[in-house]
Every structure is written in structure tokens, then in C-alpha cells.
Known about the structure:
Keywords: Membrane, Transmembrane, Transmembrane helix. The chain crosses the membrane at residues 20-38, 59-85. This protein is mainly alpha-helical. The chain folds into 2 domains: 1-43; 45-100, no CATH class. It has a two-stranded antiparallel sheet with strand order 1-2. The protein has 4 helices and 2 strands, in the order ββαααα. The model has no long low-confidence stretch (mean pLDDT 89). It is flat, with a radius of gyration of 19 Å.
Amino acid sequence: xxxxxxxxLFTVRYTVELxxxxxxxxxxxxxxxxxxxxxxxxxxxxxLIIAFFRHVISLFSMYVVxxxxxxxxxxxxxTMCWYSLPExxxxxxxxxxxxx
Length: 100
């Protein structure tokens, strides 16, 4: 089963097989949407190449920030600290996402 907690209000759950179908279906839909827009002239190949490299840079930046946070948490001996100090969740999860 796959479980998602939606802001503590309710939980969505579904099978792993349905999750795989949703992921593949979404990927195929987006692929065809991009092809249609390329044929219409909305996108050029250079736009896609630039977007790809921006995604690579973002992925690398997120990795670096994640490693930095992990090192700081380990140096301060705060492993699993968000369970006892829930106020750190913003700094550990939200701030890095907004920063990158």
C-alpha cells in the first residue's frame, strides 16, 4: 500500500500497482503533451534543452543542500530530532526547499 497524509487532515491510500499505473500514465500523458506542443510550435528544441539543464542544476543543488543539512544534523548530534522537537520541521524540510 501507498499512504499519503494530507496535512494531517486525512490519509489517501492505494495499492502499489495503482501507483505504478498512475506514474506511467502521467509520464506518457506529459510526453505526448510535449510532443503536441513541439509540433504546434509552442516549444522549440532549444527550450527543452535549457529546461533539461535547469532541472539537472536544480537536482544537483538539492543534493548539495541535503548533504549539508545531514552533516550539520550529525555534527550537532540531532539525529531524528524532529520527533522530539517538531518546531525544527520547518528548518529541516521547508527552508531547504525554498532556498534551492
